[in-house]
Specification:
Elements: E1 6-7, H1 14-26, E2 42-52, E3 59-68, E4 75-84, E5 95-98, E6 108-111, H2 116-127, E7 131-132, E8 135-139, E9 151-154, E10 161-165, E11 169-173, E12 176-177, H3 183-194, E13 204-208, E14 219-226, E15 232-233, H4 234-243, H5 249-269, E16 273-275, H6 277-297, H7 305-320, E17 325-327, E18 339-341, E19 347-349, H8 360-363, H9 370-385, H10 392-410, H11 418-439, H12 445-454
Antiparallel strand pairs: 1-2, 2-3, 3-4, 4-6, 4-12, 5-6, 7-8, 8-13, 9-10, 10-11, 11-14, 13-14, 15-18, 16-17, 18-19
Helix pairs in contact: 3-5, 4-9, 5-10, 6-7, 6-11, 7-11, 9-10, 9-11, 11-12
């Protein structure tokens, strides 16, 4: 690995200044950019590391860039920027732009994850536990990482970026970077210690010490895990079975059992808590506040808001009567796309980052396990509405089978606590409505159909 140069916004501003006009155009177009709809007013460099010399045929920079926008503190994004004299046609989709001034004048810069050599540099850094500038790599010594694995970028719609190495490993590069313990590493490590086979154990990980001489927290940047070769994405599998008119009940039941196994392992591995009125009231108030904000942002929600709010007041009232619930660490963003089915039929759960739009502290809070259940029930509904025509009966059957499978392992059926389940389903559907309105307006009808159902007065 080449010698490195650590850059900063104060000592070496030339690189970022030269990239600024290009990033203003390119960054907001990325699927994982969280600040859509607001202009980027500038950038600052949290950390920069030269991984391959800028003067060579292929220059490579690892950048942690803070994008400044009105009324926000500025989110930090992880970029792997390559620099070439010209891009070969195969790298055309990765183009960021052509640099006209600064240290890379005359070079073409691009998203280097599309390129094999930069992806190989990342794997080698993880394999050798490299310390490069602000970057720190660690790994599980019990797992071997062979050199020379051929990388390929996964180009499906994701909120981060993933590279597969030789059908052996998959590297998840977190695009939006926040300081602190990231559950996408924390929870799989805890589950590995607990011996839970439903979640691939982390092989290696990369983090950044952005203030190595101060008290600042480290930021997780990437996690390498075993690649489940031949596994089917739960979302794609459900859509295929739905298109063929096949029953998905057996798979939904098996997935419910897998979810309950993971929840049980998390409850054993990490602390749990009891939620009473003093904890449930602010939780319900938070759900109501999100509903109010969503109704302002999505006009189609407004007619339903009063009826939806009863889901949250009913939960608070139940807590006031003395009901309590157990809270534990959960997946936080569970849906069919976060589940993989092996050719043997065994289901695994992946991507424990939680909802990226939520604050990290919130994503790491102990919560009722039904939150994950509600997310999966909403996912069955999404799949059913993706068919033509929609198949609400298919979704209802899957929801029932999933809850039954969950009960077989957990010893309790989520449907026996309808007030809690409705509150979490409603909160999730409201979140979905805001997300779809901002990012995929054509999908807004899907959460709105659930909101219509959840707002019905005959629901418990």
């Amino acid at each position: 690995m080449a010698d490195t140069v650590t850059l900063s916004g104060t000592t070496s501003p030339g690189l970022l200044a030269s990239l600024d006009p290009l990033l203003r155009e390119w960054l907001p177009r990325q699927r994982w950019f969280a600040g859509k709809g607001r202009p980027v007013t500038g950038f600052s460099l949290a950390a920069g590391t030269e991984l391959l010399p800028a003067a060579s045929r292929l220059g490579l920079f690892h950048l942690l860039v803070r994008a400044h926008q009105p009324d926000t503190p500025g989110d930090c994004y992880q970029l792997l920027v390559g620099a070439r004299a010209a891009l070969p046609p195969r790298l055309a989709p990765a183009l960021i732009g052509h640099v006209t001034d600064g240290p890379l004048t005359g070079r073409t810069v691009y998203d280097a994850l599309y390129d094999a050599r930069p992806a190989e540099v990342l794997l080698e850094a993880l394999r050798t536990r490299a310390r490069i500038g602000a970057l720190r790599c660690d790994r599980d010594p019990a797992q071997e990482i062979r050199p020379g694995l051929v990388p390929r970028l996964m180009t499906g719609e994701q909120s981060n970026s993933s590279v597969v190495y030789g059908d052996t490993f998959i590297l998840k590069l977190l695009r939006k970077v926040v300081p602190g313990v990231n559950p996408d590493l924390e929870l799989p490590l805890a589950l590995a210690r607990e011996g839970c086979p439903r979640v691939p154990a982390p092989t290696a990980w990369m983090h950044a010490d952005l203030d190595p001489e101060g008290p600042g927290e480290s930021s997780v940047l990437a996690v390498l895990q075993p690649y489940l070769q031949g596994a089917s994405d739960g979302w794609e599998l459900a859509l295929r079975e739905l298109a063929k008119g096949e029953d998905f009940g057996a798979e939904a039941r098996a997935l419910g059992r897998a979810t309950a196994e993971v929840h049980g392992a998390l409850a054993r591995a990490l602390p749990t808590a009891t939620l009473g009125a003093s904890q449930i009231r602010p939780l319900a108030d938070g759900m109501a506040a999100r509903l109010d904000a969503a109704a302002q942002a999505v006009p189609a929600l407004r007619p339903y808001a009063p009826a939806l709010r009863t889901a949250f007041t009913a939960l608070a009232d139940l807590a006031a009567e003395g009901c309590t619930w157990t809270a534990q660490r959960v997946h936080g963003d569970l849906h069919l796309g976060q589940c993989l089915r092996a050719p043997t039929g065994r289901w695994s759960l992946i991507d424990f980052e939680g909802e990226p739009a939520r604050p990290l502290a919130e994503r790491r809070m102990a919560q009722p396990a039904v939150r994950d259940v509600a997310g999966m029930l909403r996912s069955f509904d999404y799949a059913a509405h993706s068919s033509d025509p929609p198949a609400p009966g298919w979704a209802s059957a899957c929801r029932a089978a999933y809850c039954s499978g969950y009960a077989e392992v957990a010893g309790r059926d989520p449907r026996t606590d309808p007030v809690l389940l409705r509150a979490y389903e409603t909160d999730k559907a409201v979140y979905e409505a805001v997300y779809e309105a901002r990012h995929r307006p054509d999908w807004l009808a899907v959460p709105l159909s659930a909101i219509h159902r959840l707002a019905a007065p005959d629901l418990p």
